[in-house]
Design a protein that fits this description.
mainly alpha; 2 domains; single chain
Length: 172
């Protein structure tokens, strides 16, 4: 059993004093770093297995997202706020992709891509979120221009692949 008053080096409050306490307890984690790690690992497992689904309320990613989205920022440390924003950005980023390419639901893709951009921190260098926003809003010209200017080779390849998939699905 994990101790409930561990204070980590990242500046989280002791577990029982944090507004995220009930979430930490629900997922048997000590702090925001462990919550982030749990979310990220589960998210990647689901993405790799093509099982990521924003409609499945039993998925850990959806449970975590729903719980942290309902916690206000008052009383959160900087690290906890950063974790909250990171998880919510990541959820909305992948929800946009899921809405576009799996469910072909453009209205949800528009909503989710807008929310992903709202949660995306300036320190987050990801260029795909903005590309997904352009695709969700049927702006293939901007998406192509955006992809052309991506310098990171991996993200550029991902962007070009997403544009190709978008075109092949006749989503316009």
């Amino acid at each position: 059993m994990k101790e409930s008053f561990t204070n980590n080096s990242e500046g989280d409050l002791p577990k029982n004093e944090s507004p995220l306490h009930s979430i930490y307890s629900t997922f048997d984690v000590l702090n925001s770093a462990e919550l982030h790690d749990l979310y990220f690992q589960e998210d990647q497992r689901l993405m790799d297995s093509y099982s990521w689904d924003y409609e499945d309320s039993d998925l850990i990613i959806n449970k975590i997202k729903n719980l942290i989205e309902n916690v206000g920022d008052i009383g959160l440390t900087k690290e906890e706020k950063d974790t909250k924003e990171s998880i919510l950005w990541f959820w909305y980023h992948h929800a946009t992709s899921c809405a576009l390419f799996q469910k072909k639901d453009k209205e949800k893709a528009k909503l989710y891509s807008t929310k992903a951009l709202e949660y995306k921190d300036n320190r987050n260098s990801n260029q795909i979120t903005k590309l997904l926003y352009f695709l969700a809003n049927d702006d293939l010209t901007e998406a192509t221009n955006w992809a052309d200017n991506i310098e990171n080779p991996t993200e550029k390849q991902t962007a070009l692949s997403l544009i190709k998939d978008y075109k092949s699905l006749n989503l316009i």
